[in-house]
Structures are given as structure tokens and as C-alpha cells.
Design a protein that fits this description.
Length: 208
């Protein structure tokens, strides 16, 4: 299902500090957007607003997939990968993906086993996630997100801890599974967003 996310004069502040203000922008399925800006500018905050986790302090954010979605249902249509979202460390990789698919199914034809093969982590399938290296954890996070059968992918610093092969895997996954979806990449590293067709710089929304 195609998704449109429209922001109209959106503003977000923490206490008395505005992070962005007067931000009007429309995101559409089939496009990928880089959310850029320096450290602490508000990229993660912006993605949290788009995910429905943070409320705006002024203006509106509207999610439409044929009909307008109520904010409390938005999370079902979105998959999120971010350094501050945790994996379930007590589980093995296979257990984790099996658990995940009960509440967010994977794209058609994909099973946890097939996913583990595609991301080249067969040797770690039965290993507990707490024993993974940081790069292995990041691959697991990316897989959980990108293989989810949802129209919107939110990727915050998606190549954190990835080596060259991991970055190549990221590009392959984007190429194969992100095309018809709506993809937002929060990043200040071009390696992570070079495929994005549009840029939104949070710094452009700080004149208040
Ligand atoms: N829950 C919160 N309460 C108060 N202030 C917050 C909260 N979350 C973030 N901030 C502040 O909002 C600003 C934007 O933070 P955010 O994490 O969105 O930036 P970022 O652009 O993602 O940064 P980075 O590039 O370092 O990841 C920062 O000044 C941060 O301290």
C-alpha cells in the first residue's frame, strides 16, 4: 500500500528549545529521502516524529495510505532501525526473527531462515545476540527492519559499526527491498544515504 506522510508547519521542542519549526514537507512512497544535519541538529527527533513516537508541539503530521491513519496505528506501517533501539539479547538470531514475525510479518516468501542465509549469518543463527559483535548486531537490526512487510522504512545511522562487506549488504538490501517503499535515512554520512533521491536538511528549519 502506498503511503504519504505530510508535515504542515511542523514544530518540535524539548522544554523551551525548538529542534525544528515551520517545517512543511511531503514524503511519498517510491522515494528515498536523506534527513541530514549536524550532530544534535534533530535528525533522530525528526524520525521519531515520523514514526508517531513523538508528538509535535505545533503543526501537523498526517499519514495517509488511502485513508488517514490515526497516530496510534502508525507503528504497524513502519519499520525502524536505529542505534537506540535494542535487540532482544537473550534470544538467538533465529529465535529473534521468529518472534518478530509474529507481530510484524516479513515480505512475501521470506522466512527467518531465508533471511539469515541472505544476510550471510548462518553461522550465527543459533548464537545468542548478546554474544554478537557490534557489526553483527547492526546486520540483525537492518534485517529485522528491511525485511518487514511495511510501506515505510526509517533508518537512523544505518551503517553504524558495519565493515565494507556490511555496507555492501546494506546497499543490496536497499536495492532489492526498498524500491517501492518510502525510505527515510537519518545520517550525516553520505555513504549511508547516497542512493536517496531527495535531501531534507534539519538546519533549514532552525530560523526562529
Ligand atoms: N528526550 C529528549 N529530551 C530532551 N532533549 C532531547 C531529547 N532527545 C533529544 N534531545 C535534544 O534534541 C537535540 C536533537 O537531538 P537528536 O538526537 O534528534 O539529534 P541528531 O541530529 O540525531 O544527532 P546525532 O547526529 O548526534 O545523532 C539535541 O540537542 C538533544 O540533546
Amino acid at each position: 500500500m502506498a503511503m504519504t506522510i505530510a508535515l504542515n508547519k511542523a514544530g518540535k521542542r524539548f522544554n523551551r528549545d525548538w529542534i525544528f519549526r515551520n517545517l512543511t514537507f511531503q514524503f511519498e512512497s517510491g522515494n528515498s529521502y536523506a534527513i541530514i544535519g549536524s550532530n544534535g541538529s534533530g535528525k533522530s527527533t525528526f524520525l521519531q516524529v515520523i514514526s508517531g513516537a513523538y508528538h509535535l508541539n505545533e503543526g501537523h503530521c498526517t499519514w495517509t495510505d488511502g485513508a488517514t491513519l490515526p497516530v496510534e496505528k502508525v507503528y504497524r506501517h513502519i519499520a525502524y532501525c536505529a542505534p537506540y533501539l535494542e535487540l532482544i539479547e537473550e534470544m538467538t538470531l533465529l529465535e529473534f526473527l521468529e518472534f518478530h514475525q509474529h507481530f510484524k510479518p516479513f515480505v512475501a516468501g521470506m522466512t527467518p531462515k531465508k533471511i539469515i542465509e541472505e544476510i550471510g549469518m548462518q553461522a550465527a543463527a543459533h548464537k545468542r545476540i548478546q554474544q554478537f559483535s557490534s557489526g553483527m548486531k547492526q546486520r540483525a537490526k537492518l534485517a529485522q527492519c528491511i525485511y518487514s512487510d511495511v510501506p515505510v522504512l526509517l533508518l537512523d545511522e544505518p551503517c553504524t559499526n558495519l565493515d565494507r562487506q556490511g555496507i555492501d549488504l546494506y546497499y543490496t538490501l536497499i536495492d532489492q527491498y526498498a524500491k517501492n517503499r518510502l525510505v527515510l535515512v537519518g545520517s550525516n554520512d553520505e555513504v549511508e544515504y547516497k542512493f536517496c533521491t531527495q535531501r531534507l536538511n534539519i538546519m533549514d528549519y532552525k530560523s526562529f
